[in-house]
Structures are given as C-alpha cells and as structure tokens.
C-alpha cells in the first residue's frame, strides 16, 4: 500500500516533487517517464500525478498556484492510456468558469514539506465546518464556493470569514438595466407553473420589459398571472374561463395546448389563423405528442380520454407539417411539441440567425477574465496604495456602471454597437456626455483582447449562418434585417464576401483532416468526448461552443433531420461524413438514461436511417459514463461525474464503452450489494437469497450457518436488516477474500449471530461490543451492537495465526482484531469506522481473558 499520496476510490494522487517517496517502483518509473513526454506550455507544467490503481490509467495534472492557493484550480491535464506513456489526450480549463479544484493537498506531499502542517490545519477547519460531509460535488470551484457560503462563511486567502449582512460584488458583466434581472426573475417563476411554451419564449428572449403577451386559450390564466407578477403586460382569453375578455393584438401570442383539444379539424385550422393574426412578432404553439401507451378511445383523428375530453396527439414531424400547411410559412421547432411561427420577418431573421449564434459571450469572457485577474492578484505581492485618487479616477468610478453595460453589449455583438443597439443610450449621454466619448473610454479602460475574441466568435457565427443559407432561398442584401447587414459590413466588408466565407466553411466541413483537427481542439477544451480519433460525442447544448467547421458539419445534418429539440447527444463521425443524433428518456433526471431513438444522418448521401428502441428485439440500452459527454458547466455535472466514477470503481463496466444490458446491470450491482437511488450509487436495500455469492469465496449462508451452536441446535439465524447483508459483504470482500488470496483456504468458526441464536450463547461473548450481530436491532429499535459493521472468527489450517493476524493488520481495512493464540481462531471485524484496533488475548491464572495491544 502507498505510504504517500491521496487515494480517492481507485485513484492515487501524488505531487511530482514527492515521487521518490512512492514505494511502488514500476508506478514511480511510469509517472516519471510520462512526465518527460509532456509538451508543457510556459507557466503550465504538470505538478500532480493521478494514477488509477485498478486500470493503470495515468493523468498528469497542472494545478495553478499549487503552493499558494489552498484549493488550487486545475489548468490542464495530460491523460495516458493504461500502460502507455505516449500520445496523451490533452484537456485545458483556461476558459472554464467552474474548473476542478484540489482538496487535502497536504496528503500529496512528503511529511517534511514546509507547508504540510499549515495545509493540514486548513483541512481540519474545513472538516469542522462540515465541508467534507458530502464530497460528491465539491471538486469544482463554484460548487465549493456555494457550499462554503451555505455554511455561513466566505473564503479569503487561507481564512474562513463569517458572512456579514452585505457582500460586495464586483462587476460580472450582467446588464443591470436590461434583460438580465427580468430573465433571472422569470427563470425563478418557471420553477412553479409557467407552461413550456411560455418558458421557451422567455428563454429565447421574446418576453422582455415593454413587450406585450396575449394567451389565446389561457385556461384558468396561470401563465397570465405569472407573467403579470413578473412585470410583463399579459392578457388572455378562453372560451370557458375568460370568454368575456377581448382578443387583442400583442407582440407575443401563445397558443399553448389548444389545437390538440379541438375535435373538429376545420376549427383547429380556424383557431390557428385567428391566434396568428393577433401576433405582431411571434406566436408559440404547443401540442401533446404521442406517448408509449394508448391515450384513450379512438375518436375521429384523436382520442376520447377517461375524463371524456378530446385529445389530438402529434408526432414532432406531423406537428411541423400541420403548422406550415395552415400558415404557409416555416415553423421553428424549439422543444418537444412546441413551435414558433413569426409574423415579423425581421424578428424571424434574427431568430434564425440566433440559432447559429453563440450565446452569453460577454458572460463567459468576463467570467474567465475575472478568474484570470483573481489568480493574478493572489500571486502578486501586496503593494501599499495611496489614500488619494485622481480626479480622472473619481470620474471613471462615477460612470463605470454605464460603461460596464455598454461593454457588455459590445462583447455580445463582437463590435462597438450603433446608437440604435445601445439599451442605455439615454443614461450614457446624460452621465458620460456622448456615445463617442464612451467608446474612447472603453478603448482606454477595458481589455480590447476580449473584444477581439468576441469578434472572432461572431464572425464564425456569421460564416455558419451564410453556410446554412446555401441550402435555402437566399434573400437579397437589402431584404436582410438591419443588424445582419451591419454584421456583414463589419466582419466581411460586403455580402458577396460573406457568402463566399460560408461556402468555404462547407468545403472545410467535408474535409476529414480539418474535422479531425477541430474535434481534437474541441475535446481539449472539454467540449465533447473524442473516441480514438474516430468520433466526437457531446451534448447538444455544447454545439455552439464547437469550432465553426464542426458547427457547420452538425448544421448540415440537422437540415435533413429537423427534430433536434428531442435530441440530447450528438456524435460526429470524423471520416465517414455521418452524424448520429440520440434521444434518451429522462436524460437529465437519471444517471443512466435509456436510449429511445438513434438517427444516423449520412451527409454525403443526403439521407438518414432511424433506429427505434424499446421492443423485444431491440430493447432500450443504457447510456453509461454520461459525464464524458457533458461539460463541467452543465447543471448536475458534478453529481453525474461522482456517479460515473463510483460505478467505474465497481469494475462492472470493464473496458467496454457500452456496458452491460439493464437486466445484467441489476444483477451485477446486487452481487456487490449496490443499487441506484436518484443520482447516487447506494448500498442495496434488498434481502438477498442466502445462497447468493458474498464476495469471491462465500455465500451469505456461509456466515449464517457456520457457528457450532447454530449447527448443533439448528436454530433460524436469519438477518432481518439489509444493512447486515451489506456489512457481511464488506467483511468478505475487504478482509476474508484477501486473506484467502494470500494464505489459501480458511475455516469460519463463528459468523453472524442474530438475537435468537445469541440467547443460546452465554460464555465469552459480548453482544454489545463484538459486532457479530451486525446491524440487527432489538425490539425497542436500538442496535444490538452500536459499533455496527460485521464480524467473524476464522482459522487458517496449518498456519501460525499470529502471522495471519499480523498480515491482516498490515494489509486490510479492519475495524477490530483479537488474536487468541498461534493455533486458535482470530476474531476480526469490518465497519465504516475502520478503527484498526488490534489485540492479543492472554488468559490470566483466574481464567479471565485480558487484551494487550498488538503493537505493545
């Protein structure tokens, strides 16, 4: 066992400066050799090794400010295949707002390290606050910070500071005068009862301050009430609940789950037209989609439900066709059973372009800049500052909030905005003087490299938009929306150049070499899982962060398959020119979602194949290692990663990328006394068959029927508590199986002792202490033995039991061990406490057994 390093499940972490302290020579030499193969960048060198002791997978990690930051951030990793020290997979975290961090770093260095005791004291303080009570998600910066705040503290340097009534917040790039606060407030409302179409209208930015909303067929008015409570002017009409209200025009109209309850097909069409005529900008339409079970009694083209109501169900493709045939214009599918139709062509163009537009550029860039600035501040020696400030500094401080907002707008556009695009133009002119002066101040006081990055991103967005336009009717430049015209002029000079850039992007997307390089670049940033240079697989939400050539590849595939709203994972096949789209059941709520449908799009043949799962011949497979295909910024990523690592540690998945079938997974988990509960891998709550395997060498019956008294009187000695079976499994796998592997066969002389059997054993037993009763309870509900765990007595034939006991002490995570003599059985227990207390037992002249510590 390693004498140095931090062990997390099967992974051993060790600082490279302490490598010589690693007592396993092959491991030490492999890590050293791998370090020589890393082509590190200046200021970004690996300083920690992470070695999986089960699989041999090796990663070299570069943590920023390892010595100075109490919980350093991971900046980059180089991962080598098991047994290899060549061609590592590189991953960088430079643009991640939520990078992995390191805890308990004192365990990674030798005991003589000058900072080890100081780091250990900080860990002890964190433990006192309960920060390590649940380690599932704390391995990421934002999760860690939020946990500290939830305990009533904030972290400053190396101190935990109690939170006061006010927390100073620096500029984060969120617009405090525009859509930012409203968006957050409405997002909070979506946790209650806003309908899916309204939520999608909010998400896509159509429900803003000043906009009007009309809910056609509003029912009891839940959406109307919710929007009005958020400060949005909303009205509604319903033929039953609000028949007296007028039907009025509005910027946004919602027709949510109305057409599907109308049994007359002609009336459905009439309602769709009436509602659309009220929309000045956009209308959302929501319907019910087909499920797995028959929804009711067939009636006309729908069903009569158990409540005697009518429901017309649609498929996604049928729904899109219905809208386009009735309204004679394109329907944009934005979610399962939800579509947008546009009354205003300018709004439609902006939305269409927005589908290929990177979102939240300013938030991402400013978050990364803030992180970079923080690291720079923490690494600098403090310098005394004068107490006075210049007049110019005072003036800048006075107007900074207005400039911050303008800077955010510039980063979102990738260019300086025109006056029409500045939301706070009146405030800028009143406080700064003029827009031209504000631009001069931006150039002097803000990092222009961020604007260059934003400009490149927006230029790529435009190239992608122009590429996709090659597949549809191209509008003349004069018919384009004003903002698109401005973007074309700034980024390309003229319309012809922009169209040429789009065509060249399509050519690049058909080049396997360029696709491969782009996939490697994406994987290095954490935007997808690269499978041996064969394919890149990722969540659909990450597509916008891909290089432009891959976004074009995906966009071409989606032209053939337009139901992306139901797709969660995308697989880019690098050499074959194919794109696989995957739809799952309960993707976000289950750590092991079932694959429902797979669509393989062949871009070269302009065709696709459908594979539906859920039949007897083609059952739904599970998605294993889901965290591979997500980014650390994805909601719930930390919990998913913890689950995946726990499942990987069981050995059930092996080297397969697919994993076992669902039925086999359940069996394999039960053999390890495990189960899935929510997003966690938990201990089993089942009572197993007594002849089920308990480890490699025993069954549960082995521990229940091994005692002399039990065999003599034949008493029923069955454990009642599932936790008892879990403890017996731990005893077998962590203590007895290793003993058998080293010494050979053993003989159990005393195992589990239930309450009834315990009444027949009265000599030299201590039920309240000996752990033979495991987790069984008395009639009053209290544990027989408060120590829990499980215990047994065993003998190794023809072996010196002192030697066996010494091996148990040196090589297993035992709890208590008592050795009675060289030829007598030893008592050993296993429990989560792992007290590691060992004793030799001596008999006095009076016949009493007296314990003596093993090391005395």
Notes on the structure:
- The chain folds into 4 domains: 6-162, no CATH class; 179-343, Vaccinia Virus protein VP39 (Rossmann fold, 3-Layer(aba) Sandwich); 456-629, no CATH class; 693-853, 2-Layer Sandwich (Muramoyl-pentapeptide Carboxypeptidase, domain 2), CATH 3.30.1380.10.
- The strands form 9 sheets. The chain has a 6-stranded antiparallel sheet, with helices on one face.
- The protein contains 25 helices and 35 strands.
- The longest helix has 23 residues, at 391-413.
- α14 packs across α15 (482-492), α15 (482-492) packs across α16 and α23 crosses α25 (801-811).
- The protein is 35% helix and 19% strand.
Task: Spell out the key features of this protein.
856 residues, alpha+beta, Rossmann fold, six-stranded antiparallel β-sheet, 35 strands, 19% strand, globular
């Amino acid at each position: 066992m390693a004498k140095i390093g931090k062990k997390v499940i099967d992974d051993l972490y060790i600082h490279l400066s302490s490598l010589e302290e690693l007592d396993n020579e092959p491991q030490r030499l492999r890590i050293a050799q791998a370090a020589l193969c890393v082509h590190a960048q200046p200021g970004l060198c690996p300083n920690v090794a992470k070695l999986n002791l089960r699989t041999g997978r090796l990663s070299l990690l570069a943590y920023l400010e390892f010595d100075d930051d109490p919980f350093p951030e991971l900046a980059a990793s180089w991962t080598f295949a098991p047994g290899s020290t060549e061609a590592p997979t590189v991953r960088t975290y430079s643009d991640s707002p939520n990078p992995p961090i390191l805890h308990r770093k004192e365990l990674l260095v030798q005991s003589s390290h000058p900072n080890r005791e100081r780091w250990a004291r900080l860990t002890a303080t964190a433990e006192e606050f309960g920060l390590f009570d649940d380690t599932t998600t704390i391995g990421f910066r934002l999760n860690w910070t939020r946990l500290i705040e939830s305990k009533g503290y904030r972290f400053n340097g190396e101190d935990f500071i109690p939170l006061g009534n006010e927390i100073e917040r620096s500029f984060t790039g969120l617009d405090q005068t525009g859509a930012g606060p409203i968006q957050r407030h409405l997002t909070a409302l979506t946790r209650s009862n806003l309908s899916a179409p309204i939520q999608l209208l909010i998400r896509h930015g159509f429900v803003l301050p000043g906009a009007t909303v009309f809910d056609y067929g509003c029912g009891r008015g839940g959406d109307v009430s919710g929007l009005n409570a958020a400060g949005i002017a909303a009205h509604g009409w319903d033929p039953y609940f609000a028949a007296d209200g007028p039907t009025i025009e509005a910027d946004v109209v919602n027709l949510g789950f109305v057409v599907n309850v109308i049994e007359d097909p002609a009336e459905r069409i009439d309602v769709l037209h009436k509602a659309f005529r009220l929309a000045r900008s956009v209308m959302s339409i929501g319907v019910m989609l087909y499920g797995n079970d028959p929804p009711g009694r067939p009636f006309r083209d729908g069903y009569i439900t158990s409540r005697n109501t009518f429901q017309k169900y649609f498929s996604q493709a049928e729904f899109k066709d219905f809208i386009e045939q009735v309204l004679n214009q394109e329907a944009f599918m934005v979610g399962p059973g939800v579509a947008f139709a546009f009354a205003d062509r300018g709004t439609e163009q902006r939305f269409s372009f927005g589908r290929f537009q990177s979102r939240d550029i300013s938030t991402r860039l400013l978050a990364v800049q803030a992180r970079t600035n923080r690291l720079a501040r923490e690494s600098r020696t403090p310098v005394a500052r004068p107490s006075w400030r210049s007049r110019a500094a005072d003036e800048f401080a006075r107007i900074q909030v207005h400039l911050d907002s303008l800077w955010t707008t510039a980063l979102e556009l990738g260019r300086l905005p025109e006056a029409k695009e500045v939301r706070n133009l009146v405030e800028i002119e009143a406080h700064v003087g003029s827009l031209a002066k504000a631009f001069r101040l931006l150039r002097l006081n803000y990092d222009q490299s961020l604007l260059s990055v934003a400009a490149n991103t927006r230029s790529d967005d435009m190239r992608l938009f122009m590429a996709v336009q090659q597949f549809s009717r191209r509008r003349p430049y004069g018919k384009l929306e004003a903002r698109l015209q401005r973007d074309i002029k700034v980024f390309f000079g003229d319309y012809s150049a922009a169209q040429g850039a789009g065509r060249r992007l399509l050519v690049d997307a058909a080049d396997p070499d360029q696709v491969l390089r782009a996939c490697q670049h994406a994987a290095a940033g954490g935007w997808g899982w690269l499978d041996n240079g064969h394919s890149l697989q990722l969540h659909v939400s990450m597509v916008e962060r891909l290089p432009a050539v891959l976004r074009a590849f995906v966009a071409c595939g989606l032209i053939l398959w337009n139901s992306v709203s139901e797709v969660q994972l995308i697989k880019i096949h690098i050499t074959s020119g194919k794109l696989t789209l995957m739809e799952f059941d309960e993707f976000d709520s289950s750590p092991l979602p079932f694959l429902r449908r797979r669509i393989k799009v062949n871009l070269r043949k302009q065709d696709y194949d459908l594979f539906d799962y859920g039949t007897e011949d083609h059952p739904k497979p599970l998605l294993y290692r889901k965290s591979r295909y997500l980014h650390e910024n994805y909601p719930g990523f930390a919990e998913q990663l913890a689950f995946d690592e726990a499942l990987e540690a069981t050995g059930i998945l092996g080297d397969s990328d697919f994993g076992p079938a669902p039925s086999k997974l359940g069996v394999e988990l039960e053999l390890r006394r495990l189960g899935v509960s929510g997003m966690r891998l938990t201990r089993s709550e089942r009572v197993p068959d007594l002849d089920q395997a308990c480890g490699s060498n025993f069954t549960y019956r082995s521990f229940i029927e091994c005692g002399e008294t039990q065999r003599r009187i034949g008493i029923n000695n069955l454990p009642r508590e599932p936790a008892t079976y879990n403890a017996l499994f731990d005893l077998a796998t962590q203590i007895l199986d290793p003993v058998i592997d080293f010494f050979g066969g053993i003989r159990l002389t005393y195992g589990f002792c239930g309450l009834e059997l315990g009444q027949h054993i009265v000599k030299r037993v201590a039920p309240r202490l000996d752990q033979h009763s495991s987790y069984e309870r008395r009639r009053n509900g209290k544990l027989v033995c408060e120590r829990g765990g499980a215990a047994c007595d065993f003998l190794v034939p023809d072996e010196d039991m002192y030697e066996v006991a010494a091996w148990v002490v040196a090589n297993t995570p035992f709890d208590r061990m008592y050795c009675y003599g060289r030829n007598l059985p030893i008592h050993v227990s296993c429990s989560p406490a792992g007290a590691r207390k060992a004793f030799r037992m001596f008999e006095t002249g009076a016949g009493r057994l007296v314990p003596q510590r093993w090391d005395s």
